[in-house]
Amino acid sequence: MSVHQTIRDVTDRITKRSEKTRRIYLDRMDAAAKQGVHRTALSCGNLAHGFAACGAGDKAKLSDEITPNIGIITAYNDMLSAHAPYKDYPDQIKAAAEQAGAVAQVASGVPAMCDGVTQGQPGMDLSLFSRDVIALAAGVGLSHNMFDAAMFLGICDKIVPGLVIAALSFGHIPAVFVPAGPMPSGLPNDEKARIRQLYAEGKVGRDELLKAESESYHSPGTCTFYGTANTNQMLMEIMGLQLPGSSFVNPGTPMRDALTKEATRRALAITALGNEFTPASRVVDEKAIVNGMIGLHSTGGSTNHTIHLIAMAAAAGIQINWQDMSDLSDVAPLLTRVYPNGMADVNHFHAAGGMGFLIDQLLNAGLAHDDVKTIWGSGLHVYAQEPKLIDDRIQMEPAAKESGNENVLTPCSKPFAKNGGLKLLKGNLGQSVIKISAVKPEHRVVEAPAKVFHSQNELNDAFKAGELNEDVVAVVRFSGPKAIGMPELHKLTPPLSVLQNRGIKVALITDGRMSGASGKVPAAIHMTPEAVDGGPIAKIKDGDIIRLDAENGVLEVLVDQAEFDARPVATQDLSESHYGLGRELFTGMRQLVGAADNGASALGELIK
């Protein structure tokens, strides 16, 4: 089936907009690829250092020009449930490479922080910047120029975007992403949400809250709600960077181990030393990025990717923006109901048909580009499959043609919503994005007086003091990337949800983030320009009437424009937020970081 006209139009304008930067990028990658087996460019002394720690057999292999060598970039640590399973992956990859007559080396480790641990804590102020640190750390590992392909072990929020940026900076070699999978299902999401809300109202204590949280996040593996971590896995699959059907297989299972070994074999098959050379620079093109955005919308994925996808695309010389995302959202039907826009989790999604069913539906409806390169072969249709473990080897079979549970995963003919629920909001306050897939239609238009706060803690204090008992648009400013690193503001979700449940009209405007779990309260997030840059959000006063219309993409303060323009810009002493728990180390990044609508990157323009 031909691709939907809107998708073609958006792809064409991205291609035209990116023509110069994409050409520069590809020329650089092609020139690097022509250098051949990269370790042959090293002097004997360089090469000797590169394999000094290897056994005699691997040293002999790495001394020639025909044995492929995989560089492993790992985000393993044993504090994060999602990354703890990676402990044994390097040994599995090395064993699989040895069986194939090749070599694999751990090139570097990268940091991996957990937003679930740092949520509402000072450490969260480092979270967004950790993406760029991860890209830099991976770049250091790959800079040894020893490798014919790279395998990336990462799952969570900023980790995969950082690894993608690094992979594209080394886009002259193949990049294969290897997931670890979600933990098994624990406490149902509706029960978890109920306990959180009761705690916010003071009706249950910390002991009961901790018990519920522990029953939700209970074992190695990714958290099972559909936040940024699991959105990352969806993106890597629909963009062709990891094996079909590999995103949501639980850790510690025979299938999971077999997929890791198969990923190794595939990485070796697509190096320049074979007949299927598939460098990352040719996998991630304009059509793959559009497929990623369609996947984001059709699954109701994390709003963090309205930032990350821009930065990831830029690393490949591709320029996308919020208008592209909003226009694609208008034609991408919502096909999943996974928490927070449903009560199911990603295990239920996977069991119902998962990525293979989803991709098959999108292709058959003309809602995704099939003519792309992937690490598994040509065409996105090779991802409309699911892996089976037969005689200890992975075999791909066609994906299910019917959903196993249409309450969780539905066909394009019966979508949960006609659009993906991501909207671009514009008006006299600048621009922001809002995710409405979990927001009921009656809550999508709010017109109410503003109440201004300079931190999420201020808002929570006001809630506890009973000061938010009338219709309100809560404005939380000085939370942007330049101000304090743009932390996620999930402390706001429970109190605002309580207010909404009480029948109060409520909305949020912030230059901070709310990610994939922003929930049922309308939240205009990533407001640009941010307050510390003198954005209009810094001129709002308590009592100003603000209109948030998520249906029509409008966000404005209903104040005489001349009066509003003449107002002084509010300032805030943020010095206490710039020190402690490592925040002083990121002073330079706060000074260098760009705006949220340009990817909030501290790395500058990767392609000029």
What can you see in these coordinates?
Helices cover 37% and strands 14% of the residues. It has 608 residues and is α/β, with parallel strands linked by helices. It folds into 2 domains: 5-34 and 68-184 and 219-398, Rossmann fold (3-Layer(aba) Sandwich), CATH 3.40.50; 422-572, Glucose Oxidase, domain 1 (3-Layer(bba) Sandwich). Helix 5 crosses helix 12 and helix 8 (159-169) packs parallel to helix 15.
Kindly state the number of beta strands.
Answer: 16
What is the strand arrangement across the widest sheet? 9-10-14-13-12-11-15-16
Using the CA coordinates, give the radius of gyration.
24 Å
In terms of per-residue confidence, which ranges show pLDDT below 50 for 5 or more consecutive residues? none
Sheet-strand content, in percent, reads 5-15%
* CATH hierarchy class name of the largest domain: Alpha Beta
| Reported CATH architecture of the largest domain | 3-Layer(aba) Sandwich
The oligomeric status of these chains comes to: single chain
Per CATH, what is the topology of the largest domain? Rossmann fold
